[in-house]
C-alpha cells in the first residue's frame, strides 16, 4: 500500500503555466476568408515540436442508433465512423503549433503555443455557384451545443474558408474552375504541410477528427478500417491520442482516478496552473512554461479570448495536456533543442513510442487502433464492465410494437427457449432490439421458428404461441448480426431503425 500511495501522491516533475497578452485569458487567432495566414503558419509548423489539433463539426450521429454501442463489432463501429465523417461538415478546424525555446538564464525548455481557429465554410463551391453545391447533414443537438458555447454560424457560412480535398482538386479539370476554388486549396496546403514534414500530430479522443481530416482534405474514406488506417499512416505517420495515454499508462490512471477523461477535465486536472483563474502567477524555474503568442505580425487577423469547444482553444488545451502527460511518462524536452541531428526528436523518444499511432476507438471497447500496423488490438489495462458480447449469439429484431419493453421480450423468449436462454437485450430504439442468446443454436432456432409461425399465422397454435406477442401485426422482422451490419452499411439516414432496415433492402 505504501508504494502505491507514493505513486499516486508523488508530485509531477514539473507543472504548467502560461502567459498571454491579457491577464487570465488565452488569445486565439481567428482566421476567416480573406485573412493572410499561409506564410506565417507555414513557418510556425516547420519550427514546432508538435502540432495539436481539434475540429468542430455540424454533427456526430445522424440518428441515435448511429451512435457507437457496446454491442458494435469493429466493422460496425467503422461504418458508423465513416458515415459521420462523410456526411457531416466541418465548421472550425483548430491548429496549435508548440514551439520549444530555452530560457537564456535558467536553461529550462519551455513552449510557445500559437492557437489558431480556422473558420471553415461547409461548401467548397464559389459564392453564387450552385452547379457544384455541397450537401451535408446537421444534428440538432450538436448545433445547439455549439450555440450554447457561442459558436458564430454566420462566420462559418459567410466568411469561412472553403476546403478542397486532394482528390477533388484533381477532379477539377477546367483551369478557370481551379482558379475559382484556389481559396479552398490554400487551407488544404497547411494539412499537406503537416504531412510533408512528418509533424507529430496530437489530438484528444481524435479518431473522428482524423477521419474528418482525411475525408475533407485527402480523399473519400476507404471501405474498411484496415485500409483506412494504412492510408492515414502513409500521410500522417506520427499521431498521438492523449486519451489513449490516459487509458494505457498506469501512473496517469492513478492520477486521474475517479475523474473524467474528457478534454476539459483532463486540462483542469493535469494543467491546474493554466486552467485556474490564477494561472498568471509566477512559477518556479523547474516549471514547464507554456506561453501563448498573442500578437499578429501581419496585423490582419483578429485575436479573441479562447473558450472551451472553440477549435483553436481546444487544440491549445490538448497540447498542454500532452506536455504534462509527457512529464508523467518521464519525457523531458531538452532533446527538442539539444540535438540538431534528430529531425523529429519527440516522436523518436523511446518512452513515447509505445503510444505513437495508437488511437482510442469510438467506444470503450477495450481495444486500441494501431495505425502503424492497421490492426485493432486489446488494450492491456482495460477492465470489462459488461458481459462479453458474443456476436454469433445475437438476433436482430425490428418493427415490433413500441409498447413492448425488456421484460416483455425476454419473458416471451424465455417461455420457448428456457429461463436462462437470454443473456441480455439491447434496445436500438423503441421498435428495434438486439437479443443475445446464451447459445449460438438458439439464433437459428429463433429465426426458423419465426418463419414457421409466419407461414401459419392463422393457425390457432401460432396465435397462442408465446412469440406471437413479438410478431403480432406481421410487421416484425428478424435477422442475425450480419443483418444488423448490412443495415448500418446502408447510406440512408432514416430516423427509425425499422425504416432504415426497410430502405436497405436486407433479406429478413
From TrEMBL:
Pfam families: CAF1. InterPro entries: CAF1_poly(A)_ribonucleases, RNase_CAF1, RNaseH-like_sf, RNaseH_sf. Coiled coil: none annotated. One of its GO terms (molecular function) is RNA binding. SUPFAM superfamilies: Ribonuclease H-like. Its cofactor is a divalent metal cation. Belongs to the CAF1 family. This is Poly(A)-specific ribonuclease PARN. It comes from Rhynchospora pubera.
